[in-house]
Amino acid sequence: MKEQLEAILASAKKELGETTNARDLDAVRVKYLGKKGELTAILKGMKNLSPEERPVVGQMVNEVRAAVEAALEEQGEKIERLALEEKLKSETLDVTMPGEEVVLGHKHPLTVVLDEIKDIFIGLGFQIAEGPEVELDHYNFEALNIPKDHPARDTQDTFYVSDNVVLRTQTSGMQVRVMEKTQPPIRIIAPGRVFRSDAVDATHSPLFHQIEGLVVDKGITMSDLKGILELFAKRLYGDDTVVRFRPHHFPFTEPSAEMDIQCYQCHGEGCRLCKGEGWIEILGCGMVHPKVLEMSGIDPEIYSGYAFGIGLERTVMGRFKIDDIRLFYENDVRFLHQF
Ligand code: DAH
């Protein structure tokens, strides 16, 4: 009996030593310790033994069982350890391998300059206002002192959505929207897309961008307007920039003007860039018309203000010497990569 048990223990250990995974390990456990296993068979056979032999054999069987269980546990741990090592090995990361290059895009030239313009005005205490591109005729024209039959409408070929709704032709309507909601002091710029039914060529596009500006407070005069706009031009084009104001007409400002900068290419001599003029037009501006203040709910006896409108495309074209507006919208990366 003793030899038989020793043989069982030896073969159990041998078989265990050959297992490499949990399933094989379990098969060995069943073979020796299971209900139909070899040790169980010996326990069942004990009824044929004499009463003196029984406890001796019983003890031997228990010792062998304990030894098999210990061997099982040991082999189980070994298998787990090996599996972990295998996994770690297969997941090693070679940190010396070259990385995959991520292609980063960058800002569109219009956005580059718009961001600069925003920064300049934010630095001067302005806030940014935004409004709808599909606009009521009232805000785009009527409340800006451009009634239905006013000839100024002819200069802005308009996409009409219905009799009273248009694609905004200018950002100036934002002046009214802001004044209706806010009492002075007001100091905002309103950048955005505008639309006109213009044929496409090198300097015209049915979609372009404007940046509206509005300041309303007690005691605002034309010298405030000139001071801020000259400072703006110097920040954007450089400290040596020379500006001039020319009288002009806009229905919603009185008096009105256009601001030019001296051509930064020829310094006033006249060249191709400034078309021989020596000056480049940058923006329209003026003192907000008292009627516009009044229609927007602000008392023109107490408050005054100035407004301006900058054409973004024209500004960027001058800045980067771009000679065709269509390049902005074609999304040709060979063009966009240059900025
Ligand atoms: N909205 C005008 C345009 O499209 C530009 C403009 C001129 C805006 C004078 C203003 C201003 O606020 O005061 O031609």
Helix content: 40-55%
Percent strand equals 15-25%
Rg of Cα set: 43 Å
Number of helices: 11
Distinct ligands:
3,4-dihydroxyphenylalanine
Multimer state = single chain
The CATH class assignment of the largest domain is Alpha Beta
> What is the arithmetic mean of pLDDT?
92
Record keyword descriptors for this entry.
seven-stranded mixed sheet, alpha+beta, binds 3,4-dihydroxyphenylalanine, 40% helix, 339 residues, 11 helices, 20% strand, BirA Bifunctional Protein, domain 2, 10 strands
Describe the secondary structure blueprint for this structure.
Layout (H helix, E strand, L loop, with lengths): L1 H17 L3 H12 L4 H7 L8 H38 L18 H15 L3 E2 L5 E3 H4 L19 E3 L2 E3 L5 H9 L4 E10 L11 E11 L4 H16 L5 E8 L2 E10 L16 E10 L1 H6 L8 E8 H9 L12 H4 L3
Parallel strand pairs: 1-5
Antiparallel strand pairs: 2-4, 3-4, 5-6, 6-10, 7-8, 8-9, 9-10
